[in-house]
Every structure is written in structure tokens, then in C-alpha cells.
Design goal:
- By secondary structure, the chain is mostly helical.
- The protein has a domain of 27 residues.
- It has 3 helices and no strands.
- The longest helix is centred in the first third of the chain and has 19 residues.
- It is extended and about 40 Å long.
- It starts with a helix and ends in an 8-residue tail after the last helix.
């Protein structure tokens, strides 16, 4: 089944909402709407920090 335009739109809006909540530091909103535990929120924020600051992440060794 090919994805319809409305399916792609819903997924895109969810991704945008998740990114905005991560950047604005809204852990309660993330836990309520995306059911993400606080430890995973912190891990995701630490993973995305180099990309959001513009610095390249350290190489994987």
C-alpha cells in the first residue's frame, strides 16, 4: 500500500512537534503526548546536541 499524502502529513507534523518539544525543553509535554520516559528524553537530547549546536559530532571509533 502506497502512503497517502495525509499519512505523510500526520507523520511530518508529529516529527516537527517532537523536535520543537526537544528544543524548547518540554519533558512533561513529551511524556504526555509521545509516552517517552525521561531517561530516553535526556539520551535523545544528548545525541542531538552536537547537531543542534552546529559542531560536528565526534567520530565513532
Amino acid at each position: 500500500m502506497r502512503p497517502k499524502a495525509w499519512m505523510i502529513l500526520i507523520i511530518a507534523l508529529g516529527v516537527i512537534a517532537l523536535a520543537i518539544a526537544l528544543v524548547t525543553n518540554e519533558p512533561d509535554w513529551l511524556m504526555a503526548n509521545f509516552n517517552i520516559p525521561p531517561t530516553e528524553i535526556n539520551n535523545l537530547r544528548e545525541f542531538l546536541a552536537p547537531y543542534m549546536s552546529g559542531l560536528p559530532p565526534p567520530p565513532i571509533s
